[in-house]
Amino acid sequence: MKFIIVGMGNFGAYLAARLTDKGHEVIGVDSDMAKIEAVKEKVTHSINLDATDRQAVKNLPIKDTDIVLIAIGEDMGASIMSTAVFKELGAKRIISRAITHTHETVIKAIGVDEIIHPEEETAERLSKKLEMKGVIDSFDISDGYNIVEVNTPKEFEGKSIRETDIRNKYQVNILTIIKVRNRPNLFGNMQERQKVLGVVNGDTMIEPGDILVLFGDIKDIQKILDLNEDA
Question: Considering all CA atoms of the chain, what is the largest pairwise distance in Å, rounded to the nearest integer?
């Protein structure tokens, strides 16, 4: 896919580098030359350009780009203006970072396809990890439903998914299992490696040290976490 990411601050630069590493074509844009210099070896293309300037933005390959992401952090005015410029120039899909409620209201009115709150989303995931013992990572879906990675309770070890009866007992589904194993690296030192099993079924066995990827209401998932407390 082809991306234009506007704003090479910490969030935008990291995202641009990650997408480039995954084989996508990424154009990183910023009006600060120092930020462009910092990312030029990490992204496909880096351009020093004022994204609020319609004439300058017209020179970008907007029609050939799948997603434009406005990742500007602190300058709400620049974010709004950039979003409006790309919308006017016919970007296929625009994702914009919102800083405040007012900012979100304005860019919604412009007509962006998706609004993100990276700081809030990271804080929410971290809060669950800190608050709920046994949670490794979590992703909010909606209305209290989450996808959560948890350490396997002792009660489930050595059983198949069917034998745990997790769906009937807890109204929670196991989406997949992450196998964690220690393997020697190139230097002979033991290093933790993870392998995702993919689609699991009722006969899939759960082993000590596994990480379960669960889907369900957070209140029901908490009951499974409590099993380790009771052990």
Answer: 65
Q: What is the pLDDT along the chain (231 residues), one digit of tens a residue?
A: 999 999 999 999 999 999 999 999 999 999 999 999 999 999 999 999 999 999 999 999 999 999 999 999 778 899 999 999 999 999 999 999 988 888 889 999 999 999 988 877 777 666 666 655 656 666 767 767 888 888 899 999 999 999 999 999 999 999 999 987 766 655 566 566 778 888 899 999 999 989 999 999 988 988 988 887 655
| Ordered domains of the chain (ranges, CATH) | 2-116 (3.40.50.720), 123-230 (3.30.70.1450)
Token pair 């196991």 is at which residue? 174
- Strand order of the β-sheet with 190-196 is 135-142, 145-151, 211-217, 173-184, 190-196
Contact between 217 and 171 under an 8 Å Cβ cutoff? The reply is yes
Task: Give the burial string for 76-105 (b: 16+ CB within 10 Å, else e).
Answer: bebbbbbbbbbbeeebeebbbbbbeeebbe
Q: According to the 3-state scheme, what is the secondary structure of 132-150?
A: CCCEEEEEEEECCEEEEEE
pTM over 0.85: no
